[in-house]
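Reviewers of the previous submission asked for a worked example of the structure-prediction workflow described in the proposal, so we include one complete record here. The input consisted solely of the amino acid sequence. No template or homolog information was supplied to the procedure at any stage.
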Amino acid sequence: MTSSPSRRAILRGKVNERPHPRPIGALAPMAFEDACTQCGDCARACPEEIILRDAEGYPVLDPRAGACTFCGACTEACETGALIAGQPFPWRAAAEPNCLSLNGVQCRACEDQCDSSAIRFRLLPGGSAQPLFDDTACTGCGACVAPCPAGAIALHPFNPTEPAQC
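From that input alone, the workflow returned the following structure tokens.
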């Protein structure tokens, strides 16, 4: 999955920087950064403690710290309107090329952690297996990210109008 950089990223010289998921209910990138005061209320309200600050001080979800339960505490705590309940979460999990299964090592850690059964493996010649992520079943919770021993799972921007990558 590829995503084009935001206009703000281009102007800041961060064209190749990977976008990070904002908390649940975040407005579109520019609107979010305009509305967010970086107060930290959303991070303090998060019972999972997975909302951290990026390099510029804005809140981001860190699925390496745990999975999001979509409880909505962060949106309830946001008084600026940068986080709004009911917004779709535009992030889905995907594997990077350093996935152990792609490299012939038996590993199913991500599949074992996925409560929505959005991850399955297709056997490939030579003993390796390709992880397949069902974007319609994946919630973007990130439960599969932290247990990956190779750090090969990440959340990526998801556009439901693009064809699925299988």
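DSSP finds five helices and six strands in the chain. We consider this example representative of the routine output the project will generate in years two and three.
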